[in-house]
Specification:
The protein is an alpha/beta fold. Helices cover 36% and strands 18% of the residues. Helix 4 (114-127) links the parallel strand 5 and strand 6. 41% of the residues are buried.
């Protein structure tokens, strides 16, 4: 099983060891660790890249305001993709071909809502149809704690594109109910209807919930997806290849 979207708990002395302990307890074999916008976990991710870790893949953030991005970052086997805000997708265009050729994943962030993100992704994939896109967080079904009226038509449009997969993650963030967050379940099931179980992946969004429930969140996401966890899908195979357990 893969945790397809996690961060690190930087409040702990050994953040990576803490994540591994949670993973071991939940029978999670591999994880995709995503850089935070605050960069608080960047040092740990750099160390993973240097170690050529077989268990983890990392995703760094693209920040247009820094002006220091190099597509050479995609050459590392441990780097699984790049996280990009909607507002920065146009600035990323000069590097889109390199990302597409690398086979790594574009992991977008919908800070302006899924409608605005979908508009930009459709423009980008029109020029780079081979681009791999991983849409996390149930496609952001809610914005400012309200159902996003653009959600269904947006995720429907994205599901029709080639090379797009989606993630069931950040469940607690979008819920107004206690675990098991039944108010979020319909959105997850709608994604399963659109993408199919083989193109959906479970992510924890650790540590942004009660971390003692790490295993519960991974189990819940996989239940909603409805795919046998021992059957690797496109995202796992692209990230880890034959290294999958």
């Amino acid at each position: 099983m893969i945790d397809a979207y996690t961060h690190l708990d930087m409040s702990l002395e050994d953040p990576l060891a803490a994540l591994e302990q949670r993973m071991n307890e939940a029978a999670v074999d591999h994880a995709l660790i995503v850089e935070t916008w605050s960069k608080d976990n960047r040092r740990c991710l750099d160390q993973l890249v240097a170690s050529s870790s077989p268990r983890f893949r990392v995703v760094f953030c693209f920040r247009s305001e820094e002006g220091q991005f190099s597509p050479e970052i995609f050459e590392s086997r441990v780097v699984g993709g790049i996280r990009i805000r909607t507002a920065d997708l146009r600035a990323f265009r000069p590097f889109a071909e390199a990302l597409s050729c690398s086979g790594k994943w574009l992991i977008p962030h919908a800070e302006a809502g899924i409608g605005a993100l979908t508009h930009e992704l459709l423009r980008l994939t029109g020029d780079y149809p081979g681009l791999r896109i991983y849409l996390p967080h149930i496609g952001w079904p809610r914005r400012d704690k309200q159902d996003d009226e653009d959600w269904d038509k947006s995720v429907s449009a994205l599901s029709a594109l080639p090379n797009v997969v989606a993630g069931i993650s950040a469940i607690a963030h979008f819920s107004q109910m206690a675990f098991p967050h039944e108010d979020v379940r319909p959105a997850a099931l709608r994604l399963r209807e659109l993408f199919g179980p083989d193109l959906l992946f479970a992510g924890s969004d650790y540590p942004l919930f009660d971390t003692s429930q790490y295993g519960d969140y991974m189990k819940l996401a996989n239940q909603w997806i409805g795919r046998r966890v021992e059957e690797p899908g496109a995202l796992e195979l692209a990230l880890f290849g034959n290294r999958l357990a």
